[in-house]
Structures are given as structure tokens and as C-alpha cells.
Amino acid sequence: MEKIPILKYLFDNGVIPFYNNQLIFPINEKVSYYVKYEIKESGSFVIEMITGKPEYRKKGYGSKVMLMIIEASNKTKTIIELEIGVITRSGGFIGNNSPTNLTGIISSNKKNKIPVKLLDEWYKKFGFVENGKNNEGNKLMIYLPKV
Q1: Cβ-based neighbour number of residue 112 at 10 Å
Q2: For site-directed labelling of 32, which of 1, 26, 50, 55 has its Cα 20 to 30 A away?
Q3: Do the bridges between strand 80-84 and strand 45-52 make them parallel or antiparallel, or are there none, so unpaired?
């Protein structure tokens, strides 16, 4: 896993790997945010979900995580992809309800979440652009690293 440049960069900068393609982003001594990801064969880093505990949402911590991921993308020249859609605890992006599915368990609490219809604008703030739609009609977005 650490041979993948974007992951090595993130690990070298304090991000903690967790079971089943999940990352823990320690923000400070009390706050951590969580990212579920996939690495495509092409080498793209696919964000499946970013979440934090409800009491830490809408305080800028998700933006800090995105800025860390964007910096890693730029430093390692890794494309970032994502799909905007409704995430369910038992399916979709997250998989199953196992105790090791930390991001799925935390994200199932809807309190203080950004509504799905506003997510594309949130991602555009970080330089993502629309990249079509998938078969389910969910919007696809992509970030191309700055050289």
C-alpha cells in the first residue's frame, strides 16, 4: 500500500491507514476525520467518502482534509476522482456494516451533513470539475493535479 505515491505522501504527513481502504486524518488532539478511498488501476485516487463525527461537522475540518488530499495530489501528480450520490450504510460506496467499516458507521449519522445537492459546489471550491455521470445518474467529478 505504501508504494502508492499519494498514500506514502499522506502517511508521511500524519495520516493513519485503517482497515479496508480507510484513512484517519488526525486534525488535532480531539478531532479526526475519516476517508474511504479506492486506488484505480490507472493510479487515480478515488474518494468514496469523507466524514467526521456529527459534532465536528461544519467547522472547516472536512475542508482541511480536502486541502491535505489536494496537496498530496499535486505533489505526487495523482488524479483524484469522486462520485456525488447518496451514501447508505449497507450498500453503495461503503460496503457492509462490519465494525471495521468505520467511515460507514460514522457517516450514517445525518446530523450537520452537507446536502448531496450542494456537494458539487463544495468540491468545485477545491478545483474539481464535472466529469459526466455514471449509469445511476450520479455526477462524477475529477481533480487534475496542478503541475
Answers
A1: 13
A2: 1
A3: parallel
Rounded to two decimals, the pTM is: 0.81
Nearest CA among 97, 116, 118 for reference residue 106: 97
Cα–Cα distance between 32 and 14 in angstroms, integer?
11
* Residue ranges of domains in the chain, CATH in brackets: 5-143 (3.40.630.30)
**Spacing of C-alpha 72 from chain mean position:** 13
Residue 2 Cα distances to 8, 61, 68, 89, 128, angstroms = 5, 25, 17, 28, 25
Find the helix or strand (DSSP H, E) in which 110 lies: none
Q: Which grid coordinates belong to 147? A: 503541475
* CA 4 – CA 43 distance, rounded (Å): 8
HSE at residue 50, side-chain half, CA atoms within 13 A, is 25
Question: What pLDDT is stored for residue 108 in this prediction?
Answer: 52
Condensed to tens digits (0 to 9), the pLDDT of residues 83-141 reads 887 655 443 333 333 334 444 444 555 554 566 677 888 899 999 999 998 888 888 99
